[in-house]
């Protein structure tokens, strides 16, 4: 204890150089822990996005592209699959449930997902958790919408409010469906997945918005002529016809949330037994009427992490290099001050300190500097998480929890402490061999 007190007083006399060394170590520790926490939480966020789904089926494309577009709303699917193919596959033996998905629209930068009541019944995330409502209920008809928690929070939406979706992904909107406002009937509880940033509408709503009326070219202005009255009469007649057609589609099947869409983007599948998964997957991949792909989410996600493994290693190497540079800075500081402290060390020897005491003192200083630097770095790490967690959630969908350091993170800190001790051993060895006469002979 006396040795550590002496070491603390010794480094206190060299505040400027020691503070600079502490700061570099703290920054490196914060950077290392932050990169590691983001990496782990990113993996966890991706893995927990979908749970309990055996297959994802979509148009023939790359497995990873299908997974990212249908589940994580990253990128977009090049093609869709026909409704007839979906109906045929969902009736195969062993299929317990299916969830149709239609993507392609957006609302103020948030993805719009079309589905039916099976989405709220069978979709699972995390440890096979069900979607829950913080407010309201699921949609019951084509004029209702359910919001993810982040959508409602960021746009300040509430139950009963009318919203308008737009054609196009992300912040790019090609056409606003002003004549089809949707009423908010439910807000989902937070999940920490892309569900939070999604606007959920019935498939029928997607079909109505993309019907023949919206596929034709919309004129922004019309030239008025002398026969405006006749033109207005014809226009009113066409409008009434469109209105009747629109009403007919809505009322044709009361309570139905599907209608008859021509195609969907993808669909999720669950089976009564895992034995059916590989068999149905093979049948889908060789399905002749349409080129389809069926992927297993867990397997595809592992392929994705395999592709990103080199990036993870580069990030970890970058952090290790920063830590090494900071420790080398501490070594440089101790070595540069060693020659200036030879008289101090000689005085300690003259009052009874032995070479091993001098060695232990130098080691203690290195350990103390490293420990304080790690402590400050941990504090900065938690401050960085507190500040950045909202940004990561909003822009990247990565939910970072403020929790205790994991065993792996503690192991990293142990490596840093051990490395700092080794760095301190170099000047300690040099100080060990300084003789009393050498120290006392220095000219002031």
Topology:
Layout: H1 2-12, H2 15-49, E1 55-59, H3 63-71, E2 81-82, H4 83-90, E3 95-107, E4 110-115, H5 118-122, E5 124-125, E6 129-130, E7 133-136, E8 144-147, H6 149-155, E9 162-163, E10 166-167, E11 175-176, E12 182-188, E13 198-202, H7 203-209, H8 212-215, H9 228-251, E14 263-264, E15 266-271, H10 275-285, E16 292-295, H11 297-338, H12 342-350, H13 355-396, H14 407-432, H15 436-440
Parallel strand pairs: 4-13, 8-12
Antiparallel strand pairs: 1-15, 1-16, 2-14, 3-4, 3-10, 3-15, 5-6, 7-12, 8-13, 9-12, 10-11
Helix pairs in contact: 1-13, 2-11, 2-13, 2-14, 11-14, 13-14
What report would you give on this structure?
With 444 residues, the chain is α+β, with helices and mostly antiparallel strands. It has 2 domains: 1-46 and 308-435, no CATH class; 55-212 and 252-295, no CATH class. It is built from 15 helices and 16 strands. Mean pLDDT is 79; it is low at 168-177 and 213-254.
What number is the mean pLDDT?
Answer: 79
Q: Cα-atom Rg, whole angstroms?
A: 33 Å
Largest sheet: 12 strands, mixed
DSSP summary: helix tally: 15
Helix content: 55-70%
Q: What's the structural domain tally?
A: 2
Unreliable spans = 168-177, 213-254
Instruction: Give the structural class.
Output: alpha+beta
Distance between the termini: 32 Å
Outline? elongated
E-strand count:
16
Domain ABC3 transporter permease C-terminal: 317-431
Protein name: ABC-type transport system
Membrane topology: Multi-pass membrane protein
Keywords: Cell membrane, Membrane, Transmembrane, Transmembrane helix
């Amino acid at each position: 204890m006396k040795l550590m007190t002496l070491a603390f007083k010794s480094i206190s006399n060299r505040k400027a150089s020691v503070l600079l060394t502490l700061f570099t170590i703290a920054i490196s520790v914060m950077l290392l822990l932050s990169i590691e926490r983001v990496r782990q939480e990113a993996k966890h966020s991706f893995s927990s996005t979908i749970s309990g789904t055996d297959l994802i089926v979509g148009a023939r494309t790359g497995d990873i592209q299908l997974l990212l577009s249908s589940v994580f709303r990253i990128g977009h699917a090049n093609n869709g699959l026909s409704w007839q193919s979906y109906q045929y596959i969902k009736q195969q033996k062993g299929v317990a449930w299916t969830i149709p998905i239609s993507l392609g629209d957006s609302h103020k930068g948030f993805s719009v997902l079309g589905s039916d009541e099976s989405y709220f019944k069978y979709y699972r995330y995390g440890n096979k958790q069900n979607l829950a409502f913080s407010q309201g209920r699921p949609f019951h008809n084509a004029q209702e919408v359910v919001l993810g928690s982040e959508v409602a929070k960021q746009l300040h939406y509430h139950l009963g409010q009318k919203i308008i979706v737009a054609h196009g992904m992300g912040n790019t909107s090609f056409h606003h469906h002003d004549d089809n406002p949707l009423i908010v009937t439910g807000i989902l509880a937070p999940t920490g997945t892309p569900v939070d940033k999604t606007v959920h509408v019935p498939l029928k709503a997607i079909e109505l918005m993309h019907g023949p009326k919206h596929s034709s070219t919309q004129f922004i202005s019309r030239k008025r002529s002398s026969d405006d009255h006749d033109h207005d009469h014809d226009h009113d007649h066409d409008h009434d016809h469109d209105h009747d057609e629109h009403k007919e589609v809505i009322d044709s099947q009361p309570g139905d949330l599907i209608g008859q869409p021509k195609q969907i983007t993808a669909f999720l599948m669950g089976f009564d037994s895992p034995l059916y998964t590989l068999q149905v997957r093979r049948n889908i991949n060789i399905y002749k009427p349409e080129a389809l792909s069926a992927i297993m989410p867990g397997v595809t996600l592992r392929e994705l992490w395999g592709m990103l493994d080199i990036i993870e290693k580069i990030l970890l190497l970058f952090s290790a290099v920063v830590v090494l540079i900071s420790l080398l800075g501490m070594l440089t500081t101790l070595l540069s001050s060693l020659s200036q402290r030879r008289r101090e060390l000689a005085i300690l020897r003259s009052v009874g300190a032995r070479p091993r005491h001098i060695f232990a003192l130098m080691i203690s200083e290195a350990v103390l500097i490293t420990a304080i630097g790690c402590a400050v770095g941990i504090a900065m790490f938690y401050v960085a998480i507190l500040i950045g967690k909202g940004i990561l959630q909003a822009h990247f969908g990565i939910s970072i929890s403020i929790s205790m350091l994991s065993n792996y993170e503690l192991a990293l800190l142990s490596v840093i402490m051990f490395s700092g001790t080794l760095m301190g051993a170099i000047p300690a060895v040099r100080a060990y061999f300084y003789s009393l006469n050498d120290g006392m002979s220095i000219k002031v």
